[in-house]
Amino acid sequence: MRVDAAIAAMRGDRMPQRRAQAAMVVAADAWRAEARVAPILADLVRYGSGAELAACPSLARLFDSGTEGARFAGRFCAVYSASLMDQPFGQLPFRHGFDGALSTLLLARAGNAQLALTALEPGDYHAASVTFSDAVRHDAVVAGEAWARATRRSPDGLLVHREIRVEPECRLTLDLSHEALFVSRVERRLVTLRLHRAAAEPDTMREYRLADGALLQQAAGAIRHSRQEMMLALLGRMKRREAAPLMAEIAVRQGPDSLRWEALREALALDTAQGFAALCQLARSPLDPLAVPAGGLRAQLIEAHPRLRAFEEARCLG
Amino acid sequence: MNLPSFDLSLPSIDLSALPDLSHLTGLFGSINHVVGSDDSIVILATFVYEATP
Fold first, then answer.
1. pLDDT value at position B44?
2. Res. A63: pLDDT tops 60
3. Which of A219, A252, A276 is the last residue of a domain?
4. Predicted complex ipTM
């Protein structure tokens, strides 16, 4: 393995790399404070906390039909091209990733919103499924040329596709809960400025098969929900019976069905009275999406444990 | 949940006897919905570690 002399020298003296990194951070701070950048980042904070995009004019301008998006991306690249010329061993102090096809660079993040620069390498891309998540996305194409497939899932579950040409000046707004964009062929590296905002209470993410629209898999839409689900499991395995009332509350209040059902199962296993009371409440709430499975489970448990019927009747009388 | 006092001893219910929903829901990040790097599982694991170090 050949190790460049400049890199080998850093083994003995860490200062050059520290200096390079400090210069990168200084460049990032200076970029954020620029007169054309600071108002955009301030708008991103408002947008990330729930404001309409129209109420964030500096940010919105990046995604309207003008050239502001390209100018913003170009300025960022110019700043860091100069910084990297000065400090070739510097690391960009922005979250970034590259998987051989797609590079992402997270320029800023505030609340539920993220502003990122993405680049997709030339080539053909294939997918057998489409995924929807509870978020809104605005794309401003900065450079490149590509073909993409826009997919919309109608309320009756039908997937409708449309081929679109993607090139500079192309602006897209997608409600990702039922719209998706898949870039199928990139002719010139496709560079896009992307604004993404997840819903405040994101619904479950779902993946459907393109061929027939069948649901393939689903996943929690928010980290918080998965964390709570894992906490429920942990408390259950620890046999923390005092957690059962809280679990029963989670089961009957608003929230993701998966989390509520797990709360119900754990509550039933920890404390039959608490869990079964919540189960009966769910079974008697016809508008609740869990009413049908709760009704089935209630009947199953009463058949296995007839004493539960007497408990339920006593509760109703109580 | 406040329950009326009820003197009947109730059976214990085994968790494994309780069914899952017909469509299971994976953990956050278990669908890799973008072409590209995705570190959401790392974020989730970090959260869990913070909750139960």
1. 63
2. yes
3. A219
4. 0.72
A 101-160 residues with CB < 8 A to B: 101-104, 118, 120, 125, 131, 133
Token reading at A146: 């590509």
Which residues 250-269 in chain A show a CB within 8 A of chain B? 252, 256-258, 261, 265-266, 268-269
Residue pair A57/A121 in contact by the 8 Å Cβ criterion? no
Going through chain A in order, the beta strands assigned E by DSSP cover 96-98, 102-110, 113-120, 123-124, 129-132, 135-153, 159-166, 171-175, 179-198, 205-209, 215-219
Q: Which residue has the tokens 């054309």?
A: A36
Query: Do A135 and A59 fall into the same domain?
Result: yes
The pLDDT of residue B27 is above 90: no
Residue A214 shares a structural domain with residue A240: no
Judged against a pLDDT cut of 70, whether residue B7 lies above it is answered with: no
d(CA A67, CA A170): 11
Chain mean pLDDT for chain A: 93
